[in-house]
Amino acid sequence: MRSIPVTVAALCYVVVVFGVLSFSSNAELDPSFYKNTCPNVSSIVREVVRNVSKKDPRMLASLIRLHFHDCFVLGCDASILLNNTDTPTKIESEQQAAPNDNSIRGLDVVNQIKTAVEKACPGVVSCADILTLAAEISSVLGGGPDWKVPLGRRDGVTASRTLANQNLPSPFSSLDKLKSAFAAQGLNTTDLVALSGAHTFGRARCTFVTSRLYNFSNSGKPDPTLDTTYLQQLRGQCPNGGSGNNLVNFELTSPDTIDNDYYSNLKVKKGLLQSDQELFSTSGADTISIVNTFANNQDAFFANFKASMIKMGNIGVKTGKDGEVRKQCNFINKKSAELDLASVVSKESSQEAMVSSF
Asked: What pLDDT, in 10s, does the model give residues 286-342?
């Protein structure tokens, strides 16, 4: 993992030019929110995530992605965790939305965390805050930056499959569509490039790559922005006409580590997804200079990544008396009251595949 020291002046340049540290913050959120009510919550979350990641290193990337997919739909309120229910109110789970179905991972991990937290501090910590803490801890365990997570989110009492299909950008998105999807959430171009850096680790299913390899834009040819050597490597992993379920590393040299190699890969046409390569290969795009900065300066990437993660984590949060603190992350409390919680088992995705849509 490369790390290039930077001067204070250089870091100030990044901040001034890209404005990433001038993010909006919800005044009601506070890193010390659970200081008196659940002081060990971060340690509890860390222990579960660390233990899971020892057996499944990909889970770190999956938990960051789960947080992202939650925040882009109804805000950061853990709506993505809600299962389908008919009573006492009908909920269409976001888990079956096109960007999530057979794709999201980590639902069982979140429930493991919730169980451990409830044992220590019953009825105190929201599932939305658990998702946010798990994302930050996953960054740290993956070799990335740490930050003080603003806490105090409440859980939503509904979900929206429609908005999940509408709001979450596709791996096939053009740069304009990516920008539009992020702008709709109050995130700017630098946020887009910085958060895309989460693709420095994790895996994607071949189904999200094969069109670039064999029939890009129905041309019968590969994507011209794809390095030819990398193209042949990917074709070996993702055969034409295959099931599409093979997994491919997002990043070539350090697939389980957060670093700035993702941006270096974009500069040599080795971005895995179309939406990745669009950041550098779109002619005249303002994202090119940001990619160059992050490729040359890992400290700048880390500073912008954590700022953008905090900013994203503040999208549409519920605080105070809004929402609730769910007793069980997959159901609103009114539904949980109908169930024997000891018998409730969440359904993890049948496909253990991680592909991020951002």
From this structure: 999 999 999 999 999 999 999 999 999 999 999 999 999 999 999 999 988 887 654
Predicted local confidence at residue 24, as pLDDT: 38
Rounded CA-CA distance 213/242 in Å is: 12
- Residue 224, SS3? coil
Residue 343, sorted as left (phi over 0), alpha (psi -120 to 50) or beta, turns out to be alpha
- Looking at residue 247, the DSSP 8-state letter turns out to be E
User: Measured between alpha carbons, how far is 205 from 59 in angstroms, rounded to an integer?
Assistant: 15
Annotated binding site for heme b: 199
- Neighbouring residues of 56: CB distance < 8 A, sequence distance ≥ 6: none
What is the distance between the alpha carbons of residues 76 and 87, in angstroms, rounded to a whole number? 24
Q: How confident is the model at residue 223, as a pLDDT? A: 97
CB 204 within 8 A of CB 272: yes
Catalytic residue, from 58, 67, 69, 161: name it.
Answer: 69
CB burial of 144-160 (b: ≥16 within 10 Å; e: otherwise) equals bbebebbbbbbbbbebb
Nearest to 351 by CA among 208, 218, 217: 208
Look up the CATH number of the domain holding residue 123: 1.10.520.10
In one-letter notation, the amino acid at residue 123 is: G
Report if residue 167 sits inside a domain. Answer: yes
Binding-site sequence positions for substrate? 169
Q: Is the pLDDT of residue 67 over 90?
A: yes
The tally of domains found in the chain comes to: 1
Q: How far apart are CA 229 and CA 160, in angstroms?
A: 42
């940001």: which residue's tokens? 290
CA atoms within 13 A on the CB side of 276: 28
The torsion angles phi and psi of 37, rounded to 5 degrees, stand at: -95, -25
User: Is residue 240 assigned to a domain?
Assistant: no
The verdict on whether 67 is a catalytic residue reads no
Six-digit token string for 259: 């670093």
Q: Scan for tokens 């093979």, then name that residue.
A: 246
